[in-house]
Amino acid sequence: MNIIANSDHEDDRQLKRILSTLIWISWCGSFFGIILSLYYRDVRLFAVVLAGSALLGVPFVLLKRRHLHTSGMFLMLIMIGMTTFIATVGQGIRDLAVFGYIIVIIFAGLALNSSYFKLCVGLSLVAVCWLVFGESFGWFVTTPFIGGVTNWFYLAGMTIIFLIAALAVNLLSMNIRKSLERERAEVTRREKVEEEIRQLNAELEQRVEERTRELQGAQEQLVRQEKLAVLGQLAGGVGHELRNPLSVINSAMYYLKMVQPDAPAKIQDYHAKIEQEVRNADKIITDLLDFARVKGGQQEQFPVDKLVHSTLVRFPVPVGVELTLDLAEHLPMVFIDPRQMEQVLGNLVVNACQAMATQKSSATGVKNCAQLAIISDQSPVTSDQWVRISVKDTGTGISPENMQRLFEPLFTTKARGIGLGLAVSRKLTEANGGRIEAESEPGKGSTFTLWLPVNEGPL
Ligand code: ADP
Q1: Is any atom of ligand 1 closer than 6 Å to the C-beta of 412?
Q2: What is the distance of C-alpha 144 from the center of its chain?
Q3: Dist. CA 428–CA 175, nearest whole Å
Q4: Residue of 392, 422, 424, 448 to test ligand 1 pocket, by largest number of atoms within 8 Å of CB
Q5: How far is ligand 1, taken at its centre, from the CA of residue 269, in Å?
């Protein structure tokens, strides 16, 4: 039972093969027995052999249904029963039968392994006892044996032969078992090694993938940096060259407005447009220059409200946008470079207004549609260290994918944008010891918050 329970698929197949061989051998033996019975004209022998061979069908069917254990048991019982009956028949046949029985025991021991084998030995002894007592009580027809040896000697000899056969079979089966176990251990070891190799392969592939990804990232970073370095050089040179013609245009505009104070409305409109575009161009140049090189600023203690107001003078909010200022009173001064932080705050205001541009035009006549709020207070968490200034708009908002790339240089969604405003703003804010954060709800608006240091921050 134990063996069956522990045996694996391969063992089962082997056992099945051997059991079926045994059944077929037994059928052949039965055929031989029938011929013998006909030869001796022995009806009893004929009946026993016929019944035995019919009974062999039981282990055969059990085997087909994969009940290996029960099939083996049946086979043993039939063999013992048949041998016992045949042993009662006559001397010649009895010798043949006992010899056949030993063969069967050897095969069965091989097939069924040691625990079955013990059972076979037990049953053999029962069979021998049966013969002994049967003889003693005169149940069987007995005849003296070859060379005048008595039945008792014969039975003792048979018992010894049984035991020797049992021992031999046991040793043989142990050897077979050991070699099987060795093979199984080898197979298990190989499977383990293969599994380890598979795992190592998978790890290796994963590592290669990771490294490839890192390499790609580094390469992209390198390309971006190269692009940015070239852009920086170009921006530095071109920016300086463009500043001069722009300031000439600006001065000329100023002069024109001075000499034509009563110019027709259309002309004044064009003046305003030229001024606005000059401002835009100037902002782009400033962004480019700032990006090319973040200059070491001149930090000083600066009042927050003054920073907000001077920014709004430099970057006026267009008509149609309702501006709300909510600046907390008694705020401590921030330690910043005012010019740089004006630039940053200005970028945020310009972006906010641009995000509300379509809203403004589509909602013509609807008052307060585009709203910009600049709120400043002290951070509730670390109130003594930071002042925050939030620029809150009711514009288009920013999609989650764009949120990830917001501060990347050259990232823009605008037709005329260059995508440096926020990258520069972050650089400048960090250079002033502060930080910048963005929150947004697509379709509802965005809030950009500047955290500015109250104490002296690193430059
Ligand atoms: P640019 O203004 O030249 O596009 P920025 O770096 O200033 O460059 O802005 C990058 C992008 O971030 C913008 O193109 C826009 O898509 C988005 N963005 C910035 N501010 C806002 C805002 N307040 N509302 C919606 N989108 C914004």
Answers
A1: yes
A2: 82
A3: 84
A4: 422
A5: 28
Query: Given the CA of residue 397, which atom of ligand 1 is nearest to it?
Result: 25
The answer to whether 393 and 446 have CB atoms below 8 angstroms apart is: yes
List strands edge to edge, sheet with 386-393.
Answer: 321-327, 370-378, 386-393, 445-453, 435-441
d(CA 232, CA 295): 13
CA angle, 361 as apex, 360 and 363 as ends, to 5°? Answer: 70
Exposure string for 264-279, b = 16+ CB within 10 A, e = fewer: eeeeeeebeeeeeebb
Angle, vertex CA 395, rays to CA 390 and CA 400, nearest 5: 85
pLDDT at 145: 36
Identity of the amino acid at 216: Q
DSSP string, 355-424: HTHHHHHHTTT-TT-EEEEEEEEE-SSSTTTEEEEEEEE-S----HHHHHHTTSTT---STT--S-HHHH
Q: How far apart are CA 239 and CA 286, in angstroms?
A: 8
418 alpha carbon – ligand 1 mean position (Å): 10
Count of CB atoms within 10 A of residue 289's CB? 19
Digit-coded pLDDT (tens) for 198-210: 999 999 999 999 9
Q: How many residues can be counted in the chain? A: 459
pTM to 2 decimals? 0.50
Q: Crossing angle for the helix pair 91-136 and 68-87, nearest 10 degrees?
A: 90
What does the pLDDT look like over 147-200, one tens digit per residue? 333 455 555 556 565 656 556 656 666 677 788 888 999 999 999 999 999 999
Ligand 1 touching residue 391 (CB < 6 A): no
Note whether 373 and 348 are within 8 A (CB).
no
Cα-to-centroid distance, 242 and ligand 1 (Å)? 24
Tokens of 349: 């205001």
Give dist(CA 337, CA 434) in Å, integer: 11
Query: Which letter does DSSP use for residue 67 in this model?
Result: -
> How wide is the angle at C-alpha 260 spanned by C-alphas 257 and 266, nearest 5°?
85
Q: Is the pLDDT of residue 232 over 80?
A: no
CA 381 to chain centre: 39
Which domains does the chain carry? 2-149 (no CATH), 297-453 (3.30.565.10)
Residue spans of beta strands (DSSP E) within 16-67: none
Q: What mean pLDDT value characterizes the chain?
A: 78
Cα 342 to middle of ligand 1, angstroms: 17
